Amino acid sequence: MGQAAFDFEAATEEATVVSEPARNESLDSQIDKMARDYRLQMQAYALALQELLPRDARINSLRATLHFIHPNIEKILSAEFLDRETCARAVDEAILQLVSLDGTVEAEDFPTLANAHCLTCSFLDFCAAGQDWLRRY
Q1: Are residues 26 and 11 in the same domain?
Q2: Contacting residues for 44 by C-beta, under 8 A, at least 6 apart
Q3: CA distances in angstroms from 88 to 56, 60, 102, 110, listed in the order given
Q4: 92 and 118 assigned to the same domain
Q5: pLDDT-derived band of residue 9, with 50, 70 and 90 as boundaries?
Q6: How far apart are CA 18 and CA 21, in angstroms?
Q7: Contact call for residues 43 and 51 (beta carbons, < 8 A)
Q8: What strands lie across the sheet with 4-8, from one edge to the other?
Q9: Structural domains counted in the chain
């Protein structure tokens, strides 16, 4: 089996960068933060791929890559984060953290932010805020 790759819009601080050399530190910091923010999502996709492939399927190399279109930067999640056990542990830990929040947060803590994205939302029929926004615009 060939290489499996994931392309996203952002990845991790331990990732490597393939980019133009003349970038300022502020941009580097922003990209590193975005990369860290997307690490768990990338690990979840890598785990899903590994779980869905037949057990006898062999992956020669697995890469999870974030591509920033402007500026032209690619971040590659370090291979140490992509093995099956590491991915499973990261997803399990995230689920445990979510479960521990049960009863500690309320829907009111997450107000609806209606905007143009409501036009393409599958839940518009059920969302009063989205419907209100649509009537106004």
Answers
A1: yes
A2: 87, 90, 91
A3: 19, 20, 22, 28
A4: no
A5: very low
A6: 9
A7: no
A8: 4-8, 62-68, 73-76, 16-19
A9: 2
> Which residues constitute the domain of residue 85?
4-105
Q: First vs last Cα of the chain: how many Å apart?
A: 51
User: In this structure, are 56 and 120 located in the same domain?
Assistant: no
Region of residue 103 (left: phi > 0; alpha: psi -120 to 50; beta: else): left
Whether 48 and 81 have beta carbons less than 8 Å apart is answered as no
Task: Kindly report the three-state secondary structure assignment for every residue of the chain.
Answer: CCCEEEEECCCCCCCEEEECCCCCHHHHHHHHHHHHHHHHHHHHHHHHHHHHCCCCCCCCCEEEEEEECCCCEEEECCHHHCCHHHHHHHHHHHHHHHHHCCCCCCHHHCCCCCCHHHHHCCCHHHCHHHHHHHHHC
> Are residues 124 and 96 both part of a single domain?
no
Mean pLDDT for the chain?
82
Render pLDDT for 54-73 as a digit per residue (tens, 0 to 9): 988 888 888 999 998 888 89
